[in-house]
Please model this.
Amino acid sequence: MSIRFLSNTKYPQLPLDIIESSVTQNGGRVNGEFGGLKLTSAFQPIFSITHRRPVGYEGLLRAFEPNGTAVSPLEVFRSAHTESDVILLDRLCRNLHIRNFLSEADETSWIFINVSPQVIVNGKHYGAYFSDLLQRYGIPPHRVVVEILEDEIHDEALLADAVGYYKELGCLVAIDDFGAGHSNFERIWRITPDIVKLDRSVITQAAQNRTVARVLPNLVNLIHESGSLALIEGVETENEALIAMDSGIDFVQGFYFGKPSEKLFPIETADVRITELCGKFKTYSDDLEAHQQRELVHYVKAFKQSANIIQAGASLEQACAGFLSQERAERCFMLNQEGLQLGKNLVSYSRASERDPRFLPVSNAEGANWSRRHYFRRAVSNPGEVQTTRPYLSVAEANMCITLSIAIQVNDETRVFCCDLDWLGT
Model:
């Protein structure tokens, strides 16, 4: 049952010894009791794709009625009706996870532990606990990753204080479920977590929507540039695992890699699973690239022919007439050696009548400076060779496109000839 207190104070103290009064140990396994329920730990492995093995485990609550019926963690926390009960339950869970983890873990793996938002906000009023727990059981703080649901903490000062507290202890801090609710990068930049855990919904959407899958590597890269490692949770299928790998993610977690268990994941099995996936990823990645190349080969050939016609003395309009009649061709344009656009865009005849009037303010690009674009810089660095971008969002009409570019000589001056291809849905 829940521990009740004789004290009439608003914040009864919940030190380590009080918490452990409801803990029992049986054959090396540590169990707890709360509200008539038996509590214990399960651990889900967190894999590093690069290292091909688990590098950490998330401690998860498992609860049972006296007759053995399982009770969900959400129901258990809902049964904690008072703030002090929530604090007690949270501390009890951390106690079980730490001790059960240590009974089986190697000497380097991380233990990921969730901390209740109420603990983040009000836990300090109930007395010292976490540092005492780590000290008593001899686990170095640097092996503990504290997961914080930042979306549920609205007070910026309290969130910053909590992150600072765990970092000062020497723990790592992870922001949990990023991408769900009202998560935003402003908080990531401000609190600089060690790890950002992307919510299950992110990988689900990426598996269902090619646009999301294309954007995911950029999201991971932005997390990296913010100074954090990135983890995708909730990976349940091989396709989701391959998408996660393609994104450049650091760590993965989910049923595809390992379900929660009282026992830690066997290392010898982990290596085989990741090795097999890496082999499949090469095929997956090669297929994606081959698909794009197959789609592009015809356009690259026609584009090169147009470039040759321009170098032979024809006007841009003459050289691009045939090219712009093709299905995916959107527009052609010419840049000088500084990246400034010479003249207006030449737009495909079929697309000219379908132009979205909402983007008329950016339709005229004459004199625009494209020198910061990779397709310009790569073309200038590799004259005479056709350069191909990854799909990206075009500022011209806010649609996904691929740009072909080539540096050529026109009247003894360097010009960069470019065209955009519609790549929506490819």
